[in-house]
């Protein structure tokens, strides 16, 4: 398969990716593909390897084994041309602190053919800061606007956002998402976003990949997850065996007077499953939940 | 695009460059005062005897400040890039990585060279006020190896800062220390005059070595 | 690009190793090569010397050597330090005095402290003092020969010799027109042809009196210039310009036998006699001024010239007319390698030197370790090939690395092994 063919299929292809820091396995056999024009969320608790994956995709880290391709290029040898198509938001909103609001725009503009200066000033203008204000003197939220402004002005084919929510208050988060939604309107943009906070993502994400410790991954369309993943409560006062996790019960949390059980199975299946294990499903009840509850239910609280 | 890299580094370094320049200016004034003191304490012909025949070097502080300038500017330029691995922003730019790195090094080297040139010019002028031209030349030939040490200290510090692994960081440190030390051997004034060109060539040849740790930083493997 | 970057670090690393490794080795194991001090004993009529041995000697000889210093004569007889000094009464005359051995009688003559002192002179001449190998002062003082005080004093000016005999005043750091004019005229009048080739004097006031400077003109004629009561006194010496005087070392001494040494184009050393500048050639067989340290020791009875390179020291003893009486040749202990040195020289093919003891300027020199260089290169190449085979390395870097190891032995092997080619 030539690169050209490859790049037409998927924006990102990860096959049999294995990575470990010393003996600590981050991924054992990670596989996923991000088609063009989709929004992917890479979700997981802190420390499961979200940033590591971004580093590998952008060539800043070499995986132990496996193959990663971004627009058809092997990730450790992205051509400048490919890099120009990718807007990359580094964890912590890394920026050149020594530059001013206008200086940093002037610096990045010549590198990108479709640079849209007005988008940048549109966003940074909201900060109400003078144009010669130094980035180093900004709060993280203010800095995120500058970084987002640069990404928007770049108009990349693919956006990679590493933990964009870190250090942002709700207002900035919402603003960020509004612009992201605008950017996505054209329909041909691909986004890969990592986060440990999910509540804002619901509206824009097409597909989620859950990363868990030890390299376990689950990938599915967000819709399937939201519709299929359920929360059940099981009162503690009824005398019975303590429920435990298994292939059907994804997770169990302590809900005060109740056990909270999480599963992709429907009510009847779960009840039967419990009974089979010698746990009376007496008082089992399905509770409604939002994306964030589902996310926490899926990954576990701690 | 390459010009943008140069401009960015210029913005980053200018405050530090001015600080380094101020430090060097202080040393220039100090050396000038030292020289004037020599002539105040003794008859001019006795000072000449000391400096010309006995090889007294009253401008030795230049040796230290030149090396410090190289190290300081390398740290000013690359230490913040290593914090949170900020250098990744530059390396993600759509430009070949060696152009990005060489652009950085070029600005740093020019910044160091400009300051060292100020030192050498200052020494040239002040020595010329009180000593015959032969001694002016000899003084310049005495500080030029120190200036090369300043450049090599800059390159060496960059090698150490950019290298991601400790093992090679130590190796880079030892090699840089060794190369820099070649220019700082105890020597009679002007003794380096005949080998300055090959030593300068060595420094020039040494400069692109910073690409190695930069590549290792860019495509690192743990 | 990466290939270049890698060698941009490897080659400096090799240079650093080749320069510092031998230096560190010397600090750890090497004895500083000490030259033999050889003398002619007027008592024994034999050459005797003081050596620092590289390795300690067998037992039983502790009383005749101390800290590996041995004193012996050309027949192999050992002496204690005191015996040794008594054999050289003109050198150790102060100790002789303390021991109550002065005045002493030798060859039917009596010598007291003052006769010894008045008839002693030592003059040395090293390769790095040759005019064309030296770091020269370039501007010299022409000291007033009749200072009118007990001590010599520096003039307020110094001169440079080039297209003219130019004086620069130290107080103003400007050419002194008047003095320049007067001295130039005097030189021209004496027939000096500019530009001058060489100027030599002893640029210090720490000497008993002043004999001015010797200048060599464009034609090779030697002139003697003094400043007498502020006025020039120029003498065109009868020294044959065809001798092509290359270097002069002035050495004022109360004995007033000679002004100093002159090295001529044929690599021979002469004394410039007070007797109308007659050159007295010194009978030095196999003397090479560019590699050998020379020393002339004069005492009331004999003149001993010694000259040595790193391995061999030669001595010739002469009468007062500089006719050779006897000579001796001795291989110095530093010439042979210690065990540690042989091992080190087999592990490293060469050492890089910046300092050259035989000249004033630094130079880049590669000192190969003779046939032992091949050992280092062979070991380096063997390990290199073995590693390359095991790692199944290939590519252009492998060939270049191999060439580097073949040229620099283990230095190269260490450098290319620490920095293996990057796998892309």
Describe the SSE topology.
The complex is a heterotrimer of chains A (302), B (222) and C (424).
Chain A: H1 3-9, E1 10-21, E2 24-35, E3 39-43, H2 50-57, E4 65-70, E5 73-74, H3 80-84, E6 86-89, H4 101-108, H5 117-125, H6 140-154, E7 158-162, H7 170-184, E8 190-195, E9 207-212, E10 216-221, H8 222-228, E11 230-235, E12 249-255, E13 258-263, H9 267-276, E14 285-287, H10 291-299
Helix pairs in contact in A: 5-6, 6-7
Chain B: H1 2-41, H2 44-53, H3 61-82, H4 87-91, H5 97-130, H6 133-162, H7 166-182, H8 196-206, H9 211-218
Chain C: H1 2-28, E1 37-41, E2 46-52, E3 65-66, E4 69-73, E5 78-79, H2 81-86, H3 93-98, E6 104-106, E7 109-111, H4 113-118, E8 121-125, E9 157-161, E10 165-169, E11 174-175, H5 177-189, E12 198-201, E13 213-216, E14 222-228, E15 231-236, E16 245-250, E17 258-264, E18 269-273, E19 279-281, E20 293-298, E21 303-308, E22 312-318, E23 324-331, H6 339-347, E24 350-353, E25 365-368, H7 372-391, H8 396-418
Antiparallel strand pairs in C: 1-2, 2-4, 3-4, 4-5, 6-7, 8-20, 9-10, 10-11, 12-13, 13-14, 14-15, 16-17, 17-18, 18-19, 20-21, 21-22, 22-23, 24-25
Task: Give the total of beta strands of chain B.
Answer: 0
**How many structural domains in the coordinates of chain C?**
3
**Largest interface, by Cβ-Cβ below 8 angstroms: which chains and how many residues each?**
B-C, 49 and 42 residues
Largest sheet data of chain C: 5 strands, antiparallel
Determine the number of helices of chain C (DSSP H or I, runs of at least 4 residues).
8
Residues in β-strands, percent of chain B: under 5%
Into how many domains do the coordinates of chain B divide? 1
Terminal CA distance of chain C: 13 Å
Q: How many runs of DSSP E, i.e. beta strands of chain C? A: 25
- Counting helices, strands and paired strands, the structural category of chain C is alpha+beta
User: How big is the Rg of chain B?
Assistant: 19 Å
Q: How would the global form of chain C be characterised?
A: flat
What is the rounded distance between the termini of chain B? Answer: 31 Å
Number of helices of chain B: 9
Order of secondary-structure elements of chain B: HHHHHHHHH
Could you estimate the helical fraction of the residues of chain C in percent? 25-40%
């Amino acid at each position: 398969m030539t690169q050209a063919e490859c790049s037409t299929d998927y924006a990102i292809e990860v096959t049999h990716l294995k990575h470990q820091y010393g003996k600590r396995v981050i991924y054992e056999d990670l596989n996923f593909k991000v088609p063009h024009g989709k929004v992917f969320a890479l979700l997981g608790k802190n420390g499961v390897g979200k940033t590591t994956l971004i580093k590998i995709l952008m060539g800043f880290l070499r995986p132990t084994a496996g193959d990663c391709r971004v627009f058809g290029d092997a990730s450790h040898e992205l051509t400048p041309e490919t890099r120009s198509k990718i807007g990359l938001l580094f964890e912590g909103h890394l920026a050149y602190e020594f530059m001013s609001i206008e200086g940093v725009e002037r610096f990045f503009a010549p590198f990108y053919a479709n640079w849209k200066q007005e988008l940048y000033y549109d966003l940074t203008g909201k900060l109400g800061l003078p144009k010669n204000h130094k980035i180093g003197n900004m709060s993280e939220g203010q800095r995120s606007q500058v970084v987002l402004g640069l990404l928007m002005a770049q108009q990349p084919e693919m956006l990679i956002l590493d933990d964009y929510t870190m250090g942002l208050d709700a207002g900035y988060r919402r603003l960020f998402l509004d612009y992201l939604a605008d950017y996505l309107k054209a329909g041909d943009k691909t986004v890969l976003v990592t986060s440990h906070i999910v509540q804002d993502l619901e509206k824009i994400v097409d597909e989620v990949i859950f990363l868990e410790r030890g390299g376990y991954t689950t990938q599915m369309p967000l819709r399937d997850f939201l519709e299929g993943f359920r929360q059940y409560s099981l009162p503690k006062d009824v005398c019975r065996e303590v429920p435990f996790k298994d292939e059907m019960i994804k997770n169990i949390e302590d809900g005060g007077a109740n056990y909270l059980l999480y599963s992709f199975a429907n009510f009847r299946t779960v009840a039967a499953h419990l009974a089979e294990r010698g746990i009376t499903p007496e008082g089992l009840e399905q509770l409604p939940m939002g994306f964030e509850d589902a996310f926490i239910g899926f990954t576990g609280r701690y | 695009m390459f010009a943008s890299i140069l401009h960015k580094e210029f913005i980053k370094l200018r405050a530090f460059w001015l600080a380094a320049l101020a430090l060097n200016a202080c040393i220039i004034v100090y050396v000038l005062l030292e020289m004037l003191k020599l002539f105040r304490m003794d008859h001019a012909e006795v000072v000449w005897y000391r400096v010309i025949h006995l090889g007294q070097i009253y401008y030795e502080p230049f040796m230290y400040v030149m090396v410090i300038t190289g190290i300081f500017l390398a740290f000013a330029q690359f230490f913040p890039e290593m914090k949170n691995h900020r250098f990744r922003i530059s390396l993600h730019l759509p430009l070949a990585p060696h152009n990005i790195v060489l652009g950085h090094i070029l600005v740093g080297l020019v910044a160091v060279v400009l300051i060292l040139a100020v030192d050498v010019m200052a020494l040239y002028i002040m020595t010329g006020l009180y000593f015959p031209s032969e001694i002016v030349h000899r003084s310049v030939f005495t500080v030029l190896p120190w200036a090369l040490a300043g450049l090599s200290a800059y390159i060496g510090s960059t090698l150490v800062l950019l290298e991601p692994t400790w093992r090679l960081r130590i190796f880079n440190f030892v090699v840089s220390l060794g190369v820099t030390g070649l220019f700082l051997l105890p020597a009679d004034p002007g003794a380096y005059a005949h080998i300055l060109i090959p030593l300068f060539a060595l420094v020039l040849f040494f400069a692109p070595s910073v690409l190695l740790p930069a590549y290792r930083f860019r495509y690192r493997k743990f | 690009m990466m290939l270049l970057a890698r060698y941009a670090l490897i080659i400096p690393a090799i240079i650093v190793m080749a320069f510092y490794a031998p230096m560190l080795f010397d600090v750890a194991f090497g004895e500083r090569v000490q030259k033999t001090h050889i003398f002619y004993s007027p008592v024994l009529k034999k050459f005797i010397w003081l050596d620092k041995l590289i390795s300690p000697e067998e037992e039983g000889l502790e009383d005749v050597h101390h800290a590996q210093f041995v004193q012996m004569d050309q027949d192999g007889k050992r002496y204690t330090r005191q015996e040794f000094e008594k054999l050289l009464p003109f050198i150790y005359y102060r100790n002789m005095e303390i021991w109550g051995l002065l005045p002493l009688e030798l060859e039917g003559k009596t010598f007291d402290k003052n006769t010894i002192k008045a008839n002693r002179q030592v003059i040395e001449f090293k390769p790095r003092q040759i005019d064309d190998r030296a770091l020269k002062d370039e501007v010299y003082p022409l000291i007033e020969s009749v200072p009118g005080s007990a001590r010599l004093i520096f003039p307020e000016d110094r001169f440079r010799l080039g297209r003219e005999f130019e004086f620069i005043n130290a107080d103003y750091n400007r050419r002194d027109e008047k003095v320049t004019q007067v001295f130039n005229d005097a030189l021209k009048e004496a027939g000096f042809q500019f530009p001058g080739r060489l100027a030599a004097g002893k640029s210090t006031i720490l000497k008993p009196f002043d004999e001015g400077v010797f200048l060599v003109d464009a034609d090779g004629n030697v002139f003697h210039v003094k400043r007498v009561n502020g006025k020039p006194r120029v003498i065109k010496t009868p020294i044959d310009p065809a001798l092509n005087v290359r270097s002069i070392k002035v050495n004022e001494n109360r004995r007033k036998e000679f002004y100093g040494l002159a090295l001529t184009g044929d690599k021979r050393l002469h004394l410039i006699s007070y007797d109308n500048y007659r050159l007295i050639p010194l009978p030095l067989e196999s003397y090479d001024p560019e590699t050998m340290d020379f020393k002339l020791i004069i005492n009331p009875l004999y003149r001993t010239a010694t000259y040595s390179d790193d391995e061999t020291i030669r001595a010739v003893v002469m009468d007062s007319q500089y006719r050779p009486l006897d000579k001796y040749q001795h291989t110095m202990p530093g010439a042979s390698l210690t065990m540690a040195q042989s091992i080190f020289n087999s592990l490293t093919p060469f050492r890089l030197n910046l300092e050259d003891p035989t000249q004033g300027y630094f130079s880049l020199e590669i000192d190969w370790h003779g046939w032992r260089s091949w050992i280092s290169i062979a070991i380096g190449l063997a390990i290199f090939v073995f590693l390359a085979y095991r790692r199944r390395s290939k590519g252009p870097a492998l060939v270049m690395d191999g060439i580097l190891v073949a040229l620099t032995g283990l230095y190269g092997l260490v450098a290319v092994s620490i920095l293996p080619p990057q796998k892309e």
